[in-house]
Amino acid sequence: MWQNFKNGFIKENPVFALFLGMCSALAISTSLNNAIGMGVCVTLVLLFSNVIISLMRKLIPDEIRIPVYIVVIASLVTIVEMLVHAYAPALYQSLGVFLSLVVVNCIILGRAEAFASKNGVAASAVDGIGMGLGYTFALILISAVREFLATGGIHFANPFNSEQILFGFSIDALKGFTIPLMSGPVGAFLTFACFAALFAMLKERAAQKEKEAQKK
Amino acid sequence: MKAVIYFVVLVTVYCVFYVLNHRTKRPQGCEDLRQECESCHIVSCPANGVYEGGKHNA
Amino acid sequence: MNLLSLALAAILINNVVLTKYLGLCPFFGVSKSSKSAVGMGLAVTFVIFGASLITYFLYYVILVPNKMEYMRLITFILVIASFVQFVEMFIKKFSASLYKALGIYLPLITTNCVVLYVAQDNITQKYDLLTTCVNSLAVPIGYMLVLVLFSCMRERLDSSATPKSWKGNPIALVAAALMALAFSGLAGIV
Lengths: 216, 58, 190
Description:
Strand content of chain A: 5-15%
Shape of chain A: globular
Oligomer: heterotrimer
Radius of gyration of chain A: 19 Å
Largest sheet of chain A: 2 strands, antiparallel
Strand content of chain C: under 5%
Helix content of chain A: 55-70%
Order of helices and strands of chain A: HHHHHHHEEH
Distance between the termini of chain A: 27 Å
Protein backbone atom coordinates (compact mmCIF):
# COMPACT_ATOMS: atom_id res chain seq x y z
CA MET A 1 0.00 0.00 0.00
CA TRP A 2 2.86 2.31 0.79
CA GLN A 3 4.10 1.57 -2.72
CA ASN A 4 0.84 2.89 -4.15
CA PHE A 5 1.26 6.06 -2.18
CA LYS A 6 4.86 6.58 -3.23
CA ASN A 7 3.94 5.98 -6.87
CA GLY A 8 1.94 9.13 -7.10
CA PHE A 9 4.94 11.25 -6.19
CA ILE A 10 7.78 10.39 -8.50
CA LYS A 11 7.34 7.37 -10.70
CA GLU A 12 3.83 8.11 -11.87
CA ASN A 13 3.56 11.76 -10.93
CA PRO A 14 0.35 12.71 -12.72
CA VAL A 15 1.67 16.04 -13.91
CA PHE A 16 5.29 15.42 -14.81
CA ALA A 17 5.35 11.78 -15.76
CA LEU A 18 1.87 11.16 -17.11
CA PHE A 19 1.17 14.70 -18.36
CA LEU A 20 -2.39 14.62 -17.08
CA GLY A 21 -4.14 17.65 -15.65
CA MET A 22 -1.77 20.01 -17.40
CA CYS A 23 -4.38 22.73 -18.00
CA SER A 24 -4.96 23.52 -14.37
CA ALA A 25 -1.34 22.84 -13.40
CA LEU A 26 -0.09 25.61 -15.62
CA ALA A 27 -2.88 28.10 -15.07
CA ILE A 28 -3.03 27.87 -11.29
CA SER A 29 0.66 27.87 -10.49
CA THR A 30 1.17 31.62 -10.59
CA SER A 31 1.38 31.79 -6.83
CA LEU A 32 1.90 29.36 -3.99
CA ASN A 33 -1.51 30.19 -2.47
CA ASN A 34 -3.42 29.13 -5.53
CA ALA A 35 -1.28 26.07 -5.99
CA ILE A 36 -1.86 24.70 -2.51
CA GLY A 37 -5.55 25.58 -2.59
CA MET A 38 -6.11 23.88 -5.91
CA GLY A 39 -4.01 20.90 -4.90
CA VAL A 40 -6.08 20.38 -1.77
CA CYS A 41 -9.34 20.61 -3.75
CA VAL A 42 -8.17 18.09 -6.31
CA THR A 43 -6.89 15.73 -3.61
CA LEU A 44 -10.24 15.89 -1.81
CA VAL A 45 -12.24 15.23 -4.96
CA LEU A 46 -9.86 12.45 -5.98
CA LEU A 47 -10.02 10.79 -2.57
CA PHE A 48 -13.80 10.86 -2.31
CA SER A 49 -14.44 9.88 -5.89
CA ASN A 50 -12.03 6.94 -5.58
CA VAL A 51 -13.72 5.79 -2.38
CA ILE A 52 -17.27 6.15 -3.74
CA ILE A 53 -16.49 4.45 -7.02
CA SER A 54 -14.64 1.68 -5.26
CA LEU A 55 -17.63 1.12 -2.98
CA MET A 56 -19.98 0.98 -5.95
CA ARG A 57 -17.79 -1.03 -8.25
CA LYS A 58 -19.77 -4.23 -7.90
CA LEU A 59 -23.09 -2.47 -8.43
CA ILE A 60 -22.37 -0.53 -11.62
CA PRO A 61 -23.28 -2.38 -14.82
CA ASP A 62 -20.23 -2.56 -17.00
CA GLU A 63 -21.73 -0.75 -19.95
CA ILE A 64 -22.51 2.52 -18.21
CA ARG A 65 -19.29 2.76 -16.22
CA ILE A 66 -18.06 6.01 -17.70
CA PRO A 67 -21.35 7.92 -17.34
CA VAL A 68 -21.57 6.92 -13.70
CA TYR A 69 -18.01 8.07 -13.03
CA ILE A 70 -18.70 11.41 -14.67
CA VAL A 71 -21.86 11.92 -12.63
CA VAL A 72 -20.10 11.10 -9.36
CA ILE A 73 -17.18 13.38 -10.12
CA ALA A 74 -19.42 16.26 -11.26
CA SER A 75 -21.49 16.09 -8.08
CA LEU A 76 -18.37 16.05 -5.90
CA VAL A 77 -16.86 19.02 -7.69
CA THR A 78 -20.09 20.99 -7.32
CA ILE A 79 -20.05 20.35 -3.58
CA VAL A 80 -16.37 21.28 -3.23
CA GLU A 81 -16.92 24.41 -5.32
CA MET A 82 -19.75 25.54 -3.10
CA LEU A 83 -17.70 24.88 0.04
CA VAL A 84 -14.76 26.87 -1.28
CA HIS A 85 -17.06 29.70 -2.34
CA ALA A 86 -18.47 29.85 1.17
CA TYR A 87 -15.39 29.38 3.34
CA ALA A 88 -12.48 30.69 1.29
CA PRO A 89 -13.84 33.36 -1.05
CA ALA A 90 -10.43 34.83 -1.89
CA LEU A 91 -9.30 31.42 -3.11
CA TYR A 92 -12.52 31.07 -5.12
CA GLN A 93 -11.83 34.38 -6.85
CA SER A 94 -8.29 33.51 -7.82
CA LEU A 95 -9.05 29.96 -8.94
CA GLY A 96 -11.91 31.20 -11.09
CA VAL A 97 -13.23 28.85 -13.71
CA PHE A 98 -10.50 26.29 -13.07
CA LEU A 99 -12.30 24.98 -10.03
CA SER A 100 -15.17 23.91 -12.30
CA LEU A 101 -12.66 22.49 -14.74
CA VAL A 102 -11.56 19.96 -12.13
CA VAL A 103 -14.51 17.92 -13.43
CA VAL A 104 -12.73 17.25 -16.70
CA ASN A 105 -9.35 16.87 -15.08
CA CYS A 106 -7.97 13.71 -16.69
CA ILE A 107 -6.38 12.57 -13.43
CA ILE A 108 -9.64 11.95 -11.61
CA LEU A 109 -11.45 10.12 -14.37
CA GLY A 110 -8.27 8.25 -15.20
CA ARG A 111 -7.67 6.96 -11.67
CA ALA A 112 -11.31 6.01 -11.34
CA GLU A 113 -11.15 3.94 -14.49
CA ALA A 114 -7.70 2.47 -13.97
CA PHE A 115 -7.64 1.84 -10.24
CA ALA A 116 -10.78 2.45 -8.23
CA SER A 117 -12.93 0.23 -10.39
CA LYS A 118 -10.69 -2.75 -9.76
CA ASN A 119 -9.45 -2.41 -6.17
CA GLY A 120 -10.78 -2.29 -2.67
CA VAL A 121 -11.76 0.83 -0.78
CA ALA A 122 -8.65 1.19 1.35
CA ALA A 123 -6.25 0.76 -1.59
CA SER A 124 -8.26 3.20 -3.70
CA ALA A 125 -8.27 5.77 -0.92
CA VAL A 126 -4.49 5.52 -0.51
CA ASP A 127 -4.01 5.75 -4.27
CA GLY A 128 -6.28 8.79 -4.40
CA ILE A 129 -4.34 10.56 -1.65
CA GLY A 130 -1.03 9.59 -3.24
CA MET A 131 -1.95 10.91 -6.67
CA GLY A 132 -3.55 14.02 -5.24
CA LEU A 133 -0.51 14.81 -3.12
CA GLY A 134 1.75 14.12 -6.12
CA TYR A 135 -0.28 16.63 -8.08
CA THR A 136 -0.05 19.15 -5.23
CA PHE A 137 3.68 18.54 -4.97
CA ALA A 138 4.13 19.21 -8.68
CA LEU A 139 2.01 22.34 -8.45
CA ILE A 140 4.01 23.61 -5.47
CA LEU A 141 7.28 23.07 -7.34
CA ILE A 142 6.15 24.98 -10.41
CA SER A 143 4.54 27.81 -8.50
CA ALA A 144 7.48 28.22 -6.15
CA VAL A 145 9.81 28.71 -9.11
CA ARG A 146 7.42 30.97 -10.98
CA GLU A 147 6.48 33.15 -8.05
CA PHE A 148 10.06 33.49 -6.92
CA LEU A 149 11.31 34.49 -10.34
CA ALA A 150 8.40 36.80 -11.03
CA THR A 151 8.22 38.66 -7.76
CA GLY A 152 11.39 37.88 -5.85
CA GLY A 153 9.53 36.24 -2.96
CA ILE A 154 7.12 33.53 -1.94
CA HIS A 155 4.00 34.07 0.17
CA PHE A 156 1.44 31.74 1.56
CA ALA A 157 -1.64 33.20 3.18
CA ASN A 158 -4.31 31.53 5.27
CA PRO A 159 -7.03 30.51 2.82
CA PHE A 160 -9.81 31.11 5.33
CA ASN A 161 -8.61 34.57 6.23
CA SER A 162 -6.65 36.07 3.42
CA GLU A 163 -5.15 38.85 5.51
CA GLN A 164 -3.07 36.51 7.57
CA ILE A 165 0.25 35.56 5.98
CA LEU A 166 1.27 32.19 7.32
CA PHE A 167 4.58 31.87 5.62
CA GLY A 168 6.43 34.20 3.38
CA PHE A 169 9.73 35.68 2.51
CA SER A 170 10.95 37.99 -0.14
CA ILE A 171 14.47 38.87 -1.04
CA ASP A 172 14.60 42.63 -1.56
CA ALA A 173 17.97 42.57 -3.21
CA LEU A 174 16.44 40.73 -6.16
CA LYS A 175 13.56 43.16 -6.63
CA GLY A 176 15.25 44.84 -9.54
CA PHE A 177 15.88 41.59 -11.34
CA THR A 178 12.43 40.03 -11.34
CA ILE A 179 11.13 38.44 -14.52
CA PRO A 180 7.40 39.28 -14.74
CA LEU A 181 7.21 37.15 -17.86
CA MET A 182 7.37 34.10 -15.63
CA SER A 183 3.88 34.62 -14.33
CA GLY A 184 2.58 34.54 -17.89
CA PRO A 185 2.13 31.63 -20.27
CA VAL A 186 5.75 31.75 -21.44
CA GLY A 187 7.09 31.18 -17.97
CA ALA A 188 4.53 28.47 -17.36
CA PHE A 189 5.47 26.43 -20.40
CA LEU A 190 9.21 26.89 -19.85
CA THR A 191 9.15 25.93 -16.16
CA PHE A 192 7.01 22.94 -16.91
CA ALA A 193 9.34 21.87 -19.72
CA CYS A 194 12.37 22.01 -17.45
CA PHE A 195 10.68 20.00 -14.71
CA ALA A 196 9.32 17.47 -17.20
CA ALA A 197 12.81 16.95 -18.61
CA LEU A 198 14.20 16.62 -15.07
CA PHE A 199 11.64 13.96 -14.19
CA ALA A 200 12.27 12.11 -17.45
CA MET A 201 15.94 12.04 -16.56
CA LEU A 202 15.22 10.77 -13.03
CA LYS A 203 12.93 8.09 -14.39
CA GLU A 204 15.57 7.04 -16.90
CA ARG A 205 18.18 6.71 -14.17
CA ALA A 206 15.83 4.71 -11.95
CA ALA A 207 15.01 2.37 -14.84
CA GLN A 208 18.70 1.87 -15.58
CA LYS A 209 19.48 1.08 -11.96
CA GLU A 210 16.71 -1.49 -11.95
CA LYS A 211 18.04 -3.08 -15.10
CA GLU A 212 21.52 -3.37 -13.64
CA ALA A 213 20.16 -4.77 -10.40
CA GLN A 214 18.21 -7.35 -12.37
CA LYS A 215 21.24 -8.40 -14.39
CA LYS A 216 23.06 -9.18 -11.18
CA MET B 1 -37.57 17.98 -5.50
CA LYS B 2 -37.62 19.50 -8.95
CA ALA B 3 -33.83 19.41 -8.97
CA VAL B 4 -33.74 15.69 -8.24
CA ILE B 5 -36.16 14.91 -11.08
CA TYR B 6 -34.20 17.14 -13.43
CA PHE B 7 -30.95 15.45 -12.40
CA VAL B 8 -32.37 11.97 -12.92
CA VAL B 9 -33.73 12.95 -16.35
CA LEU B 10 -30.34 14.31 -17.43
CA VAL B 11 -28.45 11.26 -16.22
CA THR B 12 -30.93 8.93 -17.94
CA VAL B 13 -30.65 10.82 -21.21
CA TYR B 14 -26.87 10.60 -21.02
CA CYS B 15 -26.89 6.89 -20.22
CA VAL B 16 -29.32 6.21 -23.07
CA PHE B 17 -27.18 8.06 -25.59
CA TYR B 18 -24.04 6.40 -24.27
CA VAL B 19 -25.43 2.89 -24.54
CA LEU B 20 -26.91 3.55 -27.98
CA ASN B 21 -23.59 4.88 -29.20
CA HIS B 22 -21.72 1.98 -27.66
CA ARG B 23 -23.91 -0.51 -29.48
CA THR B 24 -23.75 1.21 -32.87
CA LYS B 25 -21.13 -0.50 -34.94
CA ARG B 26 -18.47 1.49 -36.71
CA PRO B 27 -19.12 1.95 -40.42
CA GLN B 28 -17.43 -0.49 -42.78
CA GLY B 29 -13.87 0.40 -43.54
CA CYS B 30 -13.47 2.18 -40.25
CA GLU B 31 -13.17 -0.78 -37.95
CA ASP B 32 -9.45 -0.68 -37.59
CA LEU B 33 -8.99 3.06 -37.26
CA ARG B 34 -6.92 3.96 -34.26
CA GLN B 35 -6.50 7.17 -32.44
CA GLU B 36 -3.22 8.77 -33.32
CA CYS B 37 -3.26 10.44 -29.94
CA GLU B 38 0.18 10.21 -28.43
CA SER B 39 -1.02 10.49 -24.87
CA CYS B 40 -2.97 7.28 -25.37
CA HIS B 41 -0.14 5.12 -24.16
CA ILE B 42 -1.21 6.47 -20.81
CA VAL B 43 -3.67 4.00 -19.40
CA SER B 44 -5.71 6.65 -17.64
CA CYS B 45 -6.71 8.57 -20.78
CA PRO B 46 -10.33 7.71 -21.54
CA ALA B 47 -9.66 7.43 -25.23
CA ASN B 48 -7.08 4.69 -24.89
CA GLY B 49 -7.92 1.81 -27.19
CA VAL B 50 -6.48 -0.74 -24.83
CA TYR B 51 -9.63 -1.36 -22.85
CA GLU B 52 -11.50 -4.46 -23.91
CA GLY B 53 -15.24 -3.98 -23.78
CA GLY B 54 -14.46 -0.47 -22.67
CA LYS B 55 -15.39 2.77 -24.33
CA HIS B 56 -13.61 1.90 -27.54
CA ASN B 57 -13.21 -1.48 -29.05
CA ALA B 58 -9.72 -1.79 -30.43
CA MET C 1 -19.21 44.67 -27.74
CA ASN C 2 -18.44 44.69 -31.42
CA LEU C 3 -18.80 41.11 -32.65
CA LEU C 4 -15.89 41.26 -35.03
CA SER C 5 -13.48 42.46 -32.38
CA LEU C 6 -14.80 39.78 -30.05
CA ALA C 7 -14.08 37.13 -32.67
CA LEU C 8 -10.62 38.52 -33.36
CA ALA C 9 -9.84 38.65 -29.67
CA ALA C 10 -10.98 35.07 -29.16
CA ILE C 11 -8.99 33.73 -32.10
CA LEU C 12 -5.71 35.58 -31.88
CA ILE C 13 -5.32 37.81 -28.89
CA ASN C 14 -6.79 35.84 -26.02
CA ASN C 15 -6.08 32.54 -27.67
CA VAL C 16 -7.53 29.81 -25.53
CA VAL C 17 -4.41 27.63 -25.55
CA LEU C 18 -1.63 30.16 -25.41
CA THR C 19 -3.10 32.69 -23.00
CA LYS C 20 -5.64 30.67 -21.06
CA TYR C 21 -3.79 27.35 -20.81
CA LEU C 22 -6.81 25.30 -21.84
CA GLY C 23 -7.12 22.24 -24.03
CA LEU C 24 -3.51 21.23 -23.48
CA CYS C 25 -4.00 17.45 -23.30
CA PRO C 26 -5.02 17.07 -26.96
CA PHE C 27 -2.68 19.92 -27.87
CA PHE C 28 0.33 17.79 -26.96
CA GLY C 29 -1.30 14.50 -27.80
CA VAL C 30 -2.90 14.91 -31.19
CA SER C 31 -0.40 17.25 -32.75
CA LYS C 32 1.89 14.65 -34.21
CA SER C 33 0.65 15.19 -37.75
CA SER C 34 -1.13 18.14 -39.26
CA LYS C 35 -3.84 15.94 -40.74
CA SER C 36 -4.95 14.74 -37.34
CA ALA C 37 -4.72 18.30 -36.06
CA VAL C 38 -7.19 19.50 -38.68
CA GLY C 39 -9.53 16.60 -37.91
CA MET C 40 -9.39 17.32 -34.19
CA GLY C 41 -9.91 21.03 -34.77
CA LEU C 42 -13.02 20.52 -36.87
CA ALA C 43 -14.51 18.05 -34.43
CA VAL C 44 -13.88 20.42 -31.52
CA THR C 45 -15.44 23.34 -33.40
CA PHE C 46 -18.59 21.40 -34.14
CA VAL C 47 -18.95 20.05 -30.60
CA ILE C 48 -18.32 23.42 -28.95
CA PHE C 49 -20.82 25.21 -31.17
CA GLY C 50 -23.56 22.66 -30.65
CA ALA C 51 -22.97 22.09 -26.96
CA SER C 52 -22.74 25.82 -26.18
CA LEU C 53 -26.06 26.52 -27.81
CA ILE C 54 -27.77 23.66 -26.01
CA THR C 55 -26.32 24.59 -22.62
CA TYR C 56 -27.20 28.25 -23.19
CA PHE C 57 -30.83 27.39 -23.82
CA LEU C 58 -31.00 24.92 -20.96
CA TYR C 59 -29.55 27.46 -18.55
CA TYR C 60 -31.85 30.32 -19.40
CA VAL C 61 -35.01 28.30 -20.10
CA ILE C 62 -34.89 25.70 -17.32
CA LEU C 63 -32.30 26.51 -14.66
CA VAL C 64 -32.84 30.20 -14.11
CA PRO C 65 -36.67 30.26 -13.95
CA ASN C 66 -36.58 27.37 -11.48
CA LYS C 67 -33.79 28.90 -9.40
CA MET C 68 -31.51 25.91 -9.91
CA GLU C 69 -28.31 27.75 -10.86
CA TYR C 70 -26.29 25.50 -8.60
CA MET C 71 -26.95 22.63 -10.99
CA ARG C 72 -25.05 24.49 -13.67
CA LEU C 73 -21.85 22.44 -13.64
CA ILE C 74 -23.58 19.07 -13.55
CA THR C 75 -25.97 20.11 -16.32
CA PHE C 76 -23.20 21.37 -18.53
CA ILE C 77 -20.96 18.36 -18.22
CA LEU C 78 -23.84 15.93 -18.76
CA VAL C 79 -25.10 17.87 -21.77
CA ILE C 80 -21.62 17.99 -23.30
CA ALA C 81 -21.09 14.29 -22.74
CA SER C 82 -24.52 13.38 -24.17
CA PHE C 83 -24.00 15.65 -27.16
CA VAL C 84 -20.68 14.02 -27.96
CA GLN C 85 -22.20 10.55 -27.75
CA PHE C 86 -25.13 11.65 -29.89
CA VAL C 87 -22.92 13.20 -32.54
CA GLU C 88 -20.68 10.16 -32.67
CA MET C 89 -23.67 7.85 -33.08
CA PHE C 90 -25.15 10.12 -35.76
CA ILE C 91 -21.92 10.20 -37.73
CA LYS C 92 -21.41 6.46 -37.42
CA LYS C 93 -24.83 5.78 -38.88
CA PHE C 94 -24.98 8.35 -41.64
CA SER C 95 -21.54 9.22 -42.92
CA ALA C 96 -18.63 6.83 -43.02
CA SER C 97 -16.33 9.36 -44.64
CA LEU C 98 -17.01 11.93 -41.92
CA TYR C 99 -16.41 9.28 -39.29
CA LYS C 100 -13.09 8.44 -40.89
CA ALA C 101 -12.08 12.09 -40.80
CA LEU C 102 -13.12 13.09 -37.33
CA GLY C 103 -15.03 10.34 -35.61
CA ILE C 104 -12.08 8.99 -33.69
CA TYR C 105 -11.39 12.28 -31.97
CA LEU C 106 -14.90 12.76 -30.65
CA PRO C 107 -14.63 10.77 -27.40
CA LEU C 108 -11.53 12.71 -26.46
CA ILE C 109 -13.46 15.96 -26.62
CA THR C 110 -15.69 15.12 -23.65
CA THR C 111 -12.82 15.77 -21.27
CA ASN C 112 -11.45 18.69 -23.21
CA CYS C 113 -11.28 21.76 -20.98
CA VAL C 114 -12.14 24.13 -23.82
CA VAL C 115 -15.69 22.86 -24.26
CA LEU C 116 -16.64 23.32 -20.64
CA TYR C 117 -14.80 26.63 -20.53
CA VAL C 118 -16.73 28.10 -23.47
CA ALA C 119 -20.04 26.87 -22.06
CA GLN C 120 -19.30 28.45 -18.67
CA ASP C 121 -17.87 31.60 -20.18
CA ASN C 122 -21.00 32.33 -22.20
CA ILE C 123 -22.94 32.34 -18.95
CA THR C 124 -20.54 34.22 -16.71
CA GLN C 125 -20.00 36.95 -19.28
CA LYS C 126 -23.76 37.21 -19.77
CA TYR C 127 -23.63 37.10 -23.56
CA ASP C 128 -26.81 37.27 -25.59
CA LEU C 129 -27.63 34.62 -28.17
CA LEU C 130 -25.80 36.14 -31.13
CA THR C 131 -22.66 36.86 -29.12
CA THR C 132 -22.78 33.33 -27.78
CA CYS C 133 -22.82 31.95 -31.32
CA VAL C 134 -19.92 34.13 -32.39
CA ASN C 135 -17.89 33.32 -29.29
CA SER C 136 -18.58 29.60 -29.59
CA LEU C 137 -17.32 29.63 -33.16
CA ALA C 138 -14.36 31.92 -32.70
CA VAL C 139 -12.74 30.21 -29.72
CA PRO C 140 -12.49 26.74 -31.33
CA ILE C 141 -11.31 28.29 -34.59
CA GLY C 142 -8.48 29.88 -32.63
CA TYR C 143 -7.83 26.51 -31.04
CA MET C 144 -7.69 24.82 -34.43
CA LEU C 145 -5.36 27.49 -35.77
CA VAL C 146 -2.86 27.02 -32.98
CA LEU C 147 -3.20 23.23 -33.15
CA VAL C 148 -2.39 23.15 -36.86
CA LEU C 149 0.55 25.55 -36.48
CA PHE C 150 1.90 23.54 -33.58
CA SER C 151 1.59 20.23 -35.39
CA CYS C 152 3.62 21.56 -38.31
CA MET C 153 6.30 22.70 -35.86
CA ARG C 154 6.18 19.36 -34.12
CA GLU C 155 6.70 17.39 -37.30
CA ARG C 156 9.97 19.26 -37.70
CA LEU C 157 10.90 18.90 -34.03
CA ASP C 158 10.48 15.15 -34.03
CA SER C 159 13.00 14.67 -36.79
CA SER C 160 15.69 16.81 -35.20
CA ALA C 161 18.23 15.70 -32.64
CA THR C 162 17.06 16.55 -29.12
CA PRO C 163 18.78 15.50 -25.88
CA LYS C 164 17.32 12.28 -24.52
CA SER C 165 15.36 13.53 -21.53
CA TRP C 166 13.90 16.41 -23.54
CA LYS C 167 12.46 14.22 -26.28
CA GLY C 168 8.73 14.26 -26.75
CA ASN C 169 6.75 16.49 -24.46
CA PRO C 170 9.43 18.66 -22.80
CA ILE C 171 10.80 20.06 -26.02
CA ALA C 172 7.26 20.50 -27.32
CA LEU C 173 6.53 22.56 -24.23
CA VAL C 174 9.48 24.81 -24.99
CA ALA C 175 8.17 25.24 -28.53
CA ALA C 176 4.78 26.13 -27.06
CA ALA C 177 6.47 28.69 -24.82
CA LEU C 178 8.04 30.37 -27.85
CA MET C 179 4.68 30.35 -29.61
CA ALA C 180 3.07 31.95 -26.57
CA LEU C 181 5.78 34.60 -26.60
CA ALA C 182 5.08 35.35 -30.24
CA PHE C 183 1.33 35.58 -29.71
CA SER C 184 1.70 37.72 -26.61
CA GLY C 185 2.97 40.45 -28.87
CA LEU C 186 -0.62 40.90 -29.99
CA ALA C 187 -1.92 41.60 -26.50
CA GLY C 188 -3.73 44.86 -25.99
CA ILE C 189 -4.83 45.37 -29.58
CA VAL C 190 -8.47 44.90 -28.67
